[in-house]
Amino acid sequence: MGVLAVNNLNLSLGDKPILRDLTIDFWEGHVHAVVGPNGAGKSTLAATIMGLSGYRLHDGEILFNGESINHWPIDRRARNGITLGWQEPARFEGLSVWEFLASSAKDKSKEHLSRILEELGLNPDEYLRRSVDKTLSGGERKKVELASILAMEPRVAILDEPDSGIDVESLDRIFDAVRLLKERGTTVILITHSLAVLNQAEHAFLLCKGQM
User: Fold this and answer.
1) Per-residue DSSP letter, 202
2) Which pTM value belongs to this model?
3) b/e for 116-139, b at 16 or more Cβ within 10 A?
4) Of 6, 12, 143, nearest to 85 (Cα)?
5) Which of 92, 95, 117, 130 counts the most CB atoms within 10 A of its CB?
């Protein structure tokens, strides 16, 4: 059994079945991709694993280190090392990049956080003082969000459409972040329909209409 598994997962939104008897085993320290067309249930799977509001009433089990987390609230899942990178990263008016990174980092030192920004191609002298708001481009916000995930040192990182809304140069930095997460022992799950993103994975699961 892997670090994270879903067993016989069924979930409906309203009267519409989205996930249908889905079973997937994610191996520790590997990069996985969940691929499929729009509407296949990929982002719903990510939200269900994370325990987001509206995605908690499901049948089947979600297991983390062999333990059911069905009844764990989202904050407990996060504290235990499961994190989700959003397709559209959030903006935080009035919050600096420094404060955003330090809020979840295990090592909150300026040197450590600066090094993470540099690994993603962001000059810490410029970006630590910037606000996490609309003044950052889509690619910059993606990289800042990934910097925060690297700073968390999670056990499992789910990245939902990590290439959404960014340029080619930023995409290379996103892939750098995926490699860094793997090197540090994180299990990475890429939610995607992009061939370029799929090529970063060691294993892939194909979803169609909520089924494997």
Assistant:
1) S
2) 0.91
3) bbebbebebeebbebbbeeebeeb
4) 143
5) 117
User: What is the CA angle 68-73-77, rounded to 5?
Assistant: 65
Q: List strand residue ranges (DSSP E) for the chain, in order.
A: 4-13, 16-26, 31-35, 58-64, 67-68, 82-85, 92-96, 131-132, 156-160, 187-192, 203-206
Residue 15 CA, distance from chain mean position: 28
The neighbour count for residue 13, using CB atoms within 10 Å, is 12
Q: What length does the chain have?
A: 212
| Per-residue pLDDT in tens (0 to 9) along the chain, 212 residues | 579 999 999 999 988 999 999 999 999 999 999 999 888 999 999 999 999 998 988 999 999 999 999 999 999 999 999 999 876 666 677 788 899 899 888 898 999 999 999 998 899 999 989 888 888 888 888 888 899 999 999 999 999 988 877 777 778 888 988 999 999 999 999 999 888 888 999 999 999 999 99
Question: Any idea which residue has 């962001």 for tokens?
Answer: 122
